[in-house]
Amino acid sequence: MPEAFKDIFFQRPFFDDLVAALQAAYPEFDAEPFLARIFDDQWAARALKDKMRHATLTLHDSCLPITGRRWRCSAGSPRRWTGTASRR
Questions:
Q1: pTM of the full structure
Q2: Does residue 74 lie within any of the structural domains?
Q3: What's the mean pLDDT in 6-30?
Q4: In Å, how far are 8, 10, 38, 55, 75 from 14, measured between CA atoms?
Q5: Average pLDDT for the chain
Q6: Domain contains 27
Q7: How many structural domains are present in the chain?
Q8: pLDDT 10s digits, 64-77
Q9: Closest Cα partner for 84 from 64, 60, 68?
């Protein structure tokens, strides 16, 4: 029987490449917590769409700057803005 599509995509090599690209653009990106949150206890059981959604939300919550703003993230705390973007 062929391998499930959800098990072909979004494997560790994909995320290692993603982390390398993120760190090239944003050196402060902390890979270890990001990868730990991606590969949580439910990862293997997630369907493809759930894996995509989980990866997207984890990336969003990983303290990347967003248009000049940055989320201050820490485990268990609500997200708070730490800055504002100037608009011209």
A1: 0.67
A2: no
A3: 88
A4: 10, 6, 12, 11, 24
A5: 77
A6: yes
A7: 1
A8: 666 555 544 444 44
A9: 68
Tell which residue, 81, 33, 83, has the closest CA to residue 58.
Answer: 33
Helix (H) or strand (E) holding 12: helix 12-25
pLDDT tens-digit series, residues 35-56: 999 999 999 999 999 999 999 9
> Packing angle between helix 48-60 and helix 31-38, nearest 10 degrees?
150
Q: One-letter amino acid identity for 9? A: F
- Is the residue at 48 inside a domain? yes
Q: Domain range holding 22?
A: 5-64
Question: What burial class does residue 73 get, using C-beta atoms within 10 Å of its C-beta: 0-12 exposed, 13-18 middle, 19+ buried?
Answer: middle
Residue 77 exposure: Cα atoms within 13 Å on the Cβ side: 10
Instruction: For 15-71, give the DSSP string.
Output: HHHHHHHHHHH-TT--HHHHHHHHT-TTGGG--HHHHHHHHHHHHHTS--EETTEEE
